[in-house]
Amino acid sequence: MKRLVKGGRVISPAQNLDASVDIVIEDGKIVQIGPDIMCPEAELIDAAGLVVAPGLIDMHVHLREPGLEAKEDIYSGSRAAAAGGFTTIACMPNTKPVIDNAILVSGLIRQGKLEGAVNIKVIGALSKGQEGKELAEIGDMIYAGAVAISDDGHWVNNAKLMRLGLEYTGMFHKTIISHAEEDSLVAEGVMHEGAVSAMLGMKGRPAVAEDIAVARDIMLAEYTGASLHVAHVSSRGAVELIRQAKQRGVKVTAEVTPQHLALTDADVTGFNTAMKVNPPLRSRDHVEALLEGLKDGTLDILVTDHAPHAFEEKDVEFRYAPSGFAGLETSLGVILTALYHTGQFTLPEIIRFMSARPAALFGLDGGQLIPGAVADITLIDPDREWTVDSRNFYTKGKATPFEGKKLKGKAVATIVAGNLIMQNGEVKI
Ligand SMILES: [Zn+2]
């Protein structure tokens, strides 16, 4: 079947394209792009007043499958992704059991094709059981289709193991994604260490824990020549270390989340467990450094770190609550509200961070709108005003720090391989 996406503002940063053009889709691919295309036999998708972007890609999602399906599974998580405008998501391996072997990687890829509403990519663990002792089957997992390697959830404490992981992963031209927080400094901390934690009497997770972890990982990446991707950067020191490393030619890239850009530790004062996340929401000076880092190319991509938990797990005292919250269905709205509508970033810049750049970094299909490319497309209404109501979420994890917040900007349609799978917030498959 042919489809014609007509009348929109098409933005594809990979081609420096920002123009009023139409797109014809056939057999899951883009076949034609140009002004005023007439194609009477095609089904029309009216994009008047909308931005037409390459499908959004999220490289940091916890789908919780296998083993933790009370929090999320492929079915629910991928529908949350579709609702949020994502066409490709990559799932982290801190599941039960941990995704640390080729059988699990290929099983999840197969399950993703069967049950997933969007493209599901799999990230394999660096160490067996994510215990930080012995390397996992990195080569086998990459052959089975793993797109990156990570012990996300915690740092790889053992420098020798991290070195081996980098050397081994580098041989396959893949990247290690590091959750950079030095263990001993954050052991009992529940929020950013600073004036607010002191006032609340809460144990802190100091920014220096992140700086130390990032510094060591950069040194090992530089020493081995392998590539490193720093997950959810949140500290000013980490931004500066990554900036300097990039200037030296170290193969380091980095990501940042909407929550670390839009919120601060002051938001924790109400002890709302939806504000608890690792690394923690930091103070304003760190947020300013993150925005600068995103602007000057130090930080490469935006990710959600979608980390859903069951309601009863989050419905406890702050210090006992698990860290993380749902992000797929609020990410674009938060980013457009905090970055675009404040005049700090343009739409092409944001689409680069959320689609073109992650596709290029991790060698994924999509991320661009050109004839021959897969027809993964997101239609965005940048001015649509809406209020976050977690009762409407597709994810099982209803906790969100943005509950009740008014946002401006929303994905209004998601097209995966030419199929219209979400329209006006409703997932159709
Ligand atoms: Zn993490």
From TrEMBL:
PROSITE patterns: DIHYDROOROTASE_1, DIHYDROOROTASE_2. Transmembrane segments: none annotated. Its EC number is 3.5.2.3. Signal peptide: none annotated. GO terms for cellular component: cytoplasm. Binds 2 Zn(2+) ions per subunit. It is an enzyme of class 3 (hydrolase). It catalyses: (S)-dihydroorotate + H2O = N-carbamoyl-L-aspartate + H(+). Zn(2+) 2 binds at residues 152, 179, 232. The gene is pyrC. Pathway: Pyrimidine metabolism; UMP biosynthesis via de novo pathway; (S)-dihydroorotate from bicarbonate: step 3/3. The active site is at 305. This is Dihydroorotase.
